[in-house]
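User: You have something folded?
Assistant:
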Amino acid sequence: MLPTDGDGVPDAAGIRDEVVEALVMFVRALRRAGVDVPANAGVVGAQALVEVGFDDEDRARAALRAALVTRAEGVETFDRLFGEFWRRLAAHLDGDANDALDDAPDGALAPLGAESAPSDEAAETAAAEMEPGDDWNDGDLPLVRSAIEPGASDGQETDSTTATYSPSGRPETVTVDVGALIDDDPLDAAVDRLVGSLASLRGRRWRRAGSGERADPRRALRQSVATGGTVASLPERARRETAVQVAVLADVSQSVLDVVDRGFLLRFLRTLTARVRRSRVFFFDSDVRDVTTAFDEPTTADAVRALERAETSWGGGTRIGHAVETVRREHSEAIDRRTVALIVSDGLEMGDVAGLEREMTWLASRSRGVLWLNPLAANPEYEPTPAGMAAALQAVNGLFAFIDSRDILEIARQLEQYGIGGRIGLEYDPRRRQKTTRPDTKTKP
């Protein structure tokens, strides 16, 4: 029995959410099994299922295989996992799954009726058995952060964080192992170069210049009055260089936190704000929080503690348009013609896409420029085809990858060479043309 509204009519939004949630889990299971799944596979797969319907399993299997599998060697794994996916989806849509999809493990498809949440002791045991450097377990437990972070000494206490993924997400208080937030010299150097490239962007106002700059005919005509109309010299002018001001809208929804390293994200924000004259930082998922004061702390570890004291949450759903709208309505002073807006997000909008397009147009018209930093774009096969990302692109000066310090350096390089109004962005990244996937790159549907 499909989900219905109060009048007994099939609820399209409810059906869509059930399908999308099941597909997210299926795609993650395929990736963990080694299948090469495209970055936008979840969206395409949902569209394919809606097109062929849910009455014929064979048709649904063929449609999803075409949408999710790009290499022949992945077909066997797809067929092996599809049966369980289809059984779970059918049971959930019939109302017999007892909310199993909501509590199912992230990255694996457990049988229906399995325990949905382990005890704290079981979670700690699973975390302890993980190898150093592993990000997530592949067993029948929810997402468990490794108890031993890369580079941590044996016996060093760290925080274990559990979370499950759904399109809407479940917000939780910001928790990061502050002991792992060590100095990162490559990131410091990359941010220094980025800030330098932003600070050297030419502003809108003109200044007098020396030789080799643009001619200033108006000033030449004014000066010619004193010589009877004869132009004795040709003055020149250039754009003023303006001090950098930055506003960061950081997407901290569960889909982003599953892809980007949380420590890297927080170190980047703390280092950036420490190096610019004026900055504002906003966290957003389903809601928006102004967290600027937390990043005014002396170190990243202090910033994390400030976020924890303020009970700042993250890990909810993604409402990018709502975030920009909130900044426009409640924090409009954060954006002006001297401000470069940085949006850190995977672009997987769960809200109104038309609203996102409208708010992004406002942001582009109000700011010095808009740069979009997308963790998914670190994959050389990534294309900005999800509806939210596609809608926002028309107002973005450049779309860039955002996984590590190498991505920050590439943004700085392009800005130094071409400026914020030049031909910049993902398509001009030489690493993308080489089609080389970095070992640390993660992808999501």
Observations:
- The two ends are 27 Å apart (CA to CA).
- The chain has three domains: 12-103, 206-240, 245-433.
- Residues 206-240 form one domain.
